[in-house]
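Shipment paperwork, digital attachment
Item: protein structure file
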Amino acid sequence: MKEYRRTTGLVIGRLREEKGMTQEVLSGLAGIARSHLGMIECGRKSPNVETLRRIAAALGLRLSQLIGMVEEAGE
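Attachment content:
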């Protein structure tokens, strides 16, 4: 579970940076606290499905796309 959290956070952080977004901007678009996003990105919190869906939408992705990216990164 710890490795999943870490990989998820790394993927979200990479995607956010690729889109030129700050944590403040992404968290605002996703409707979550910036501190919560920060904890997700550093692997300290595991996001639930709804939070992942919101983050994916804010990044312009479907939830399935984000999960697929996390799975690929974890291989």
